[in-house]
Amino acid sequence: MQQNVGATDKRVRTALGAVFGIASIGTLSGAVSLPEIAAPVLGVASLLMLGTAATGVCGLYALLGVDTCPVSAVDSR
What we know:
Elements: H1 7-29, H2 38-55, H3 59-64, H4 70-75
Organism: Halorubrum lacusprofundi (strain ATCC 49239 / DSM 5036 / JCM 8891 / ACAM 34)
Protein name: Inner membrane protein YgaP-like transmembrane domain-containing protein
Keywords: Membrane, Transmembrane, Transmembrane helix
């Protein structure tokens, strides 16, 4: 798959992934008062955000035809 996640998008995904991960761990330890089901949901969301930021490929973007990566737009010409 071609990269479809741009630099700004990667930064936002990394930040959100970190926040979701910290919230998940905080929920597990009892430091954050969220329902118990929130911990695994936030953990999975964190892994998805960090994974798409690291690889530069987002499956949902591919399905929707969204491309925020300027490099792949130049390559397709």
